[in-house]
Amino acid sequence: MNWYILCTKSRKEKSVSKYLEKVGIEAYCPVIRRQHKWSDRIKVVEEPLFANYCFVKVNETDRSKVFVNSGIIKYLYWLGKPAILAESEIDSIKSVLSQYDHSKITVNDFQSNDKIAIKSGAFINQTGTVLQRQGNNIVIYMEAIQMCIKINFNTTSVSKL
């Protein structure tokens, strides 16, 4: 079985994941806890780490079975084929979310450029593509999930491949 990336309707990521789990399909929607301030209160809420994306683990032949929920739009494709994530990439996301301060994790949309290796920090031993530098931060495109991660290079060591 492989991990595939589902594109969901806006703000349906968590409900799609819960529904798929309920019907016996392994799904994962990584969430981060953010503190939101309203005029009358401050509350910690869980938001999807990747907007409009949910991960699902199914056999190639069973991929169509996930469309039982109206919140699912389609599978994400990469080079004409459904995008597949390695188990280690899902484990890496889970590890990062369980070990690091969620307020320091940010995700941005992507454009690709040159390759780097991450030598320390939350994404150690991962590779990516540098998009831009923003002060002490570097925006890295991670090809397998087609998303960008902002990393503070004061606390994370990176080197060119």
Provide structural commentary.
By secondary structure, this protein is mainly β. The chain has 2 domains: 2-104, Alpha-Beta Plaits (2-Layer Sandwich), CATH 3.30.70; 107-160, SH3 type barrels, CATH 2.30.30. The chain has helices at residues 13-22, 87-99; strands at 2-8, 26-28, 31-37, 42-48, 53-58, 72-75, 77-78, 81-82, 84-85, 107-108, 114-118, 127-134, 137-142, 147-152, 158-160. A 6-stranded antiparallel sheet has the order 10-14-13-12-11-15, with no helix packed on it. Strands 1, 2, 5, 6 and 9 form a 5-stranded antiparallel sheet that branches. A hairpin with an 8-residue loop joins strand 11 (114-118) and strand 12. The longest helix has 13 residues, at 87-99. It is globular. Mean pLDDT is 84; it is low at 108-112.
Please give a quick description of this structure.
This is Transcription antitermination factor NusG. Helices cover 14% and strands 43% of the residues.
- What is the typical, i.e. mean, pLDDT? 84
Q: Secondary-structure element sequence?
A: EHEEEEEEEEHEEEEEE
Would you identify the CATH H-level superfamily of the largest domain?
A: NusG, N-terminal domain
Question: Would you identify the regions where 5 or more consecutive residues have pLDDT less than 50?
Answer: 108-112
Q: Give the C-alpha Rg.
A: 17 Å
List how many beta strands DSSP finds.
Answer: 15
- Please identify the top-level CATH class of the largest domain: Alpha Beta
Q: Name the CATH architecture of the largest domain.
A: 2-Layer Sandwich
Structural class: mainly beta
Q: Level of helix content?
A: 10-25%
Bin the strand percentage.
Answer: 35-45%
Number of domains: 2
Characterize the main sheet. 6 strands, antiparallel
Stated plainly, the CATH topology of the largest domain is called: Alpha-Beta Plaits
Through-space gap between termini: 31 Å
Strand ordering within the main sheet: 10-14-13-12-11-15
- Number of helices, where a helix is a run of at least 4 consecutive DSSP H or I residues: 2
Q: What is the molecular shape?
A: globular
